[in-house]
Amino acid sequence: MEENTFFARVESINETQQDTDTLRLLKEDDTGITIRVKKAPEDIVEQQTYLFECEEIIHKEEPQLKALTYTQIDQCKLTVDRRQELMEMFYDYAPVKTSDVQRIIESYLSQIENKVIKDITLAIYKEYEEAFYLYPAATKFHHAYIGGLSYHTSTMMKLIDGFLDVYPFLNKDLLIAGIILHDMCKVDELSNYRGPEYTTKGKLIGHITMGVKKVELVASKLNYIDKEEVMLLEHIILSHHYYGNYGSPKKTNLPEALILHFIDNIDSKVTVLDESLKLVEKGEFTSPIGVLDRQRYYKTKFDK
Length: 304
Known about the structure:
Distance between the termini: 45 Å
Number of strands: 5
Strand content: 15-25%
Order of helices and strands: EEEEEHHHHHHHHHH
Helix content: 40-55%
Structural class: alpha+beta
Shape: globular
Oligomer: single chain
Mean pLDDT: 90
């Protein structure tokens, strides 16, 4: 990349009465820089990342950079790994490679054999794919960072193998599809992936109901609306929080729905526990952990 073409996050916009404004940027090489831009338009937003192409100018006898073009990062064609490299520079990001997460998720997707389940799951996955690998799983509590939604999904996916080995009566296709779909509509529930808040639709309807509606809509388009598999997928999504005060209007009445609820609960809470333990020294207790009934956990002194 040329010296005067770079990715940077807009830290602040200094608006003036002149024909130009200045932008304070954090570049991808971790250096701060101020550049000039002709009257910063509304599509330049603080805390968002852009690809800037600049030229060198002299202003008040001092060398400066002036923006010629700027492109928001979501509009740039980037590999998964390159996007992650940039996101890790500018934002809090999942502690895993996105390409590895994608490989895990798609390897399980390919194992679904039931045509109805596979067609519905693939259609929804493809619709949300790009955002799915960027969005957090929540605004706080667990996996609340860029890439957290897919990271949470991939970890849950790996946990089903043990359950299937011990309890072979479980339906693998329903488990895989349910894990992929259960939180997919968090992409609609949250406002963006960088510093999200809950949207009006997210507050009034929520990702559980939106997920059920999405399955029904896709099933209808695929002429599967009367298939039992559709009802089963809807129940798994509807019941995965188990308790009404957490958003589920139904408790689990399918074994696969029960297992998914357990796996979801395990991963969300153990991930927070792991993060909390990393903040303390051996022989110390964590701070009270909200998702674990505000209990404090001890970090043992001995090595594995």
